[in-house]
Amino acid sequence: MHELGRNNVDPTPEQLGRMRALVRQAMDEGAMGVGSSLVYVPAAYAGTDELVALASEAGRCGGMYISHIRSESSRLIEAIDELIDISRRSGARAEVYHLKATGQSNWPKMRAAIARIERARAAGLQITADMYLYTASATGLDSKLPVWIREGGHAAMMERLKQPRLRARAAAEMRARRRGWSIMQVTGFKNPALDIFAGKRLSEIARMRGTSPETAALELILEDDSPVGTIFHLMSEDNVRQGVVQPWMSFGSDAAAVSAEPPYTDSPTHPRAYGNFARLLGRYVREEKLLSLAEAVRKLTSLPAANLRIADRGQLKSGFFADIAIFDPKTIADRATFEDSHQYAVGMRHVLVNGVPVLRNGEHTGDKPGRVVRGPGWQRCK
Q1: What does the angle CA 62 – CA 68 – CA 70 come to, to the nearest 5 degrees?
Q2: Confidence band for 264, pLDDT divided at 50, 70 and 90
Q3: Tens digits of residue pLDDT in 281-309
Q4: How many domains does the chain have?
Q5: Could you point out which of 14, 58, 105, 304 has its C-alpha 20 to 30 Å from the C-alpha of 233?
Q6: Which residues form the Amidohydrolase domain (predicted)?
Q7: Could you give the CA distance from residue 82 to residue 87 in angstroms, rounded to a whole number?
């Protein structure tokens, strides 16, 4: 964004040099590494060589390359290969951000994706992944629009959507891709006039509006002047289980911070915002016994801390910061659902952050002892 803006252009050598300097500066200021979100614009415009150059700077400072890879569906394997190639060429550790295979026809690719990562690790590359524990993703509905209509950022996209000719062209391209509109659940809107559609599948919204799902999607984005938050029911439970047991897999919610009170409760959200970690401990450890409690705790604590090179955290160890969660392994469970998403998990008794209780008997104490956590290049990477 600093150098290339939102346009689909390659950096000049001078621009790439300045981009590399920005990475070094960020690492010196405490960043953990370089991240990319290659299904979104403008990150989607970045080529592999550009990403190698930037990841190299992070790697020299002990940082890693974490990527929302270029495809999680039809080109999943190619996207995994690109991440591995970037790690190999840059020397940086690399992590796949929420590894998954979306779309039923792509579900069998999860096994091949895991095999690719295993092969790279066996060859000496430090490749890891993280995941959330649900069979639905969540992002903006605008992510399903053609890349050309999103170029230049939100304002430019809105101007294109105002033109009937361009909307018709976009709808035709979307129709040709044969997306499963019935698996897309719209969560909420800025425009109160659209609230009647919150929580409904896009196929149902299209019927209510008397139009096609493609046209409905384009019109909702235009009328709301927003990306339109959407849940996509795209994944396989068997694939979730495959991911959970991988020793190099850690877990993250991929959710925004919310609270079970207004205004957050005015519209639904993805249940992972409340239940992801309790779901691991309750469903996959206690009920399904896919992994031991000790292994699950490792994947929630010391593994991500080690991957990110976060010093003095992630273990109960003398001299480390006392970040401690005390829960009942017999009762911990997620309660949030797609139908009733604003529900706190149960079974978490006490939480200490930097040695200070912030949750006592399930109630917030009011203390806020958090500190800035800095990465491995802090004050040594200029």
Answers
A1: 120
A2: confident
A3: 999 999 999 999 999 999 999 999 999 99
A4: 2
A5: 304
A6: 266-358
A7: 9
